Amino acid sequence: MINAVLDTNNFSEKIKIFSSGLGNLFQDLLKKVGDKMTSEAKANAPVNTGKLKDSIKFLINKKDIIESALTTKKTLNKSNVWYSNIREHGANITAKKSEYLIFKVNGEWKKVKSVKTPAQPFAKNVFNDYFGNDNSKGYQELASALLEKMESELK
Q1: Would you say residue 109 has pLDDT above 90?
Q2: pTM of this prediction?
Q3: DSSP 3
Q4: Which of 16, 31, 53, 59 is a plausible cystine mate for 45, CB 3.0–4.6 Å?
């Protein structure tokens, strides 16, 4: 007869990080993915002054559920660059308080009834690449980072 005793104290200590809702682990992993997404969105952003590009960030809101966004906002509620949606989605801009829009282009004044700006997506495509389906970059990155974290904790 062979008796074997398995001491699980050491193992339990190493895996405690994964118990009780994973603690901050998910947020840490999500932030790593968010940093990569931010970098890609900044590379895709149209650049005139650089304000739009500099404002792109990945935010995590930790109230009741984890909500995240690739955004140009200072917070999830307050915009930092008012024209970011126009650049991302395009727009048909018309005068509201007068008959014409008047603005300067290349030193010459223009007077028009409306302006149509084409979409220049910089964030939506990146977000879709990362979280558009169950096999996208974001899920692969999260799974890889989780596996790496588990392996380092179990050593």
Answers
A1: yes
A2: 0.65
A3: -
A4: 53
54 in any annotated domain: yes
Q: What is the DSSP string of 76-130?
A: SSSBSSTTHHHHHH-EEEE-SSSS-EEEEETTEEEEESEEEE----SSHHHHHHH
Angstrom CA distances, 15 to 18, 20, 92, stand at: 6, 11, 55
Domains identified in the chain, total number: 1
Q: Does residue 10 fall inside a structural domain?
A: no
Q: How many CA atoms lie within 13 A of 150 on its CB side?
A: 10
pLDDT surpasses 60 at 1: no
- For residue 152, give Cα distances in angstroms to 33, 119, 146: 19, 44, 10
101 domain-assigned: no
Q: For residue 83, what are the domain limits?
A: 22-92+119-150
